[in-house]
Every structure is written in structure tokens, then in C-alpha cells.
Amino acid sequence: MEEDQVGQTEAVKPFSGSNEQGLAGKGGKYSKGDPWTSHVVVAEGGKLITGQNPQSAEAFAEAVVKALA
């Protein structure tokens, strides 16, 4: 959605397998926040941490520090 809002949909097409439909089709879990807001997900066990966009940087860093503690 954020890519659509800034006119960069074509730029992310090579990564289309990592979108909601692509992940769900392979048994993955998909989570998203509102556009342009922080959204961080920590997988069970804390070994996979991901952030949605640059607005997630602070929360992402906090999750990494917590996982390493």
C-alpha cells in the first residue's frame, strides 16, 4: 500500500512473492500495520524480527536489544 501511495508499485514487483498473498500461499503468516506507521513483529522464540518501514526503526531496534538481552 505504501508503495502504491508513492507511485513505486512497479519497483517492488520483483518482490511480489513476499507479499501477503505470496506468503499465505506458502503457509506463512503476514501482518501489517497502517501505512506510514511503526509496525514490528517478533516471531515466537525471538529469532526473527521484522519491521514494516523506516518508521519502525526505533521499535525494531528495541526488539533486537530485548532479544539479545
Can you walk me through this structure?
By secondary structure, this protein is mainly α. The protein has 2 domains: 1-30, no CATH class; 31-69, no CATH class. Helices cover 38% and strands 9% of the residues. The protein has 4 helices and 2 strands. The protein has a two-stranded antiparallel sheet. A hairpin with a 6-residue loop joins strand 1 (40-42) and strand 2. The longest helix has 12 residues, at 57-68. The radius of gyration is 13 Å and the shape is globular. It starts with a helix and ends with a helix.
Quick summary:
The protein has 69 residues and is mostly helical.
Proportion of β residues? 5-15%
Number of helices: 4
DSSP E strands, number: 2
Mean pLDDT, all residues: 85
Helix- and strand-based class? mainly alpha
What strand order characterises the main sheet?
1-2
**Which range best describes the helical content: under 10%, 10-25%, 25-40%, 40-55%, 55-70% or over 70%?**
25-40%
Instruction: Summarize the biggest pleated sheet.
Output: 2 strands, antiparallel
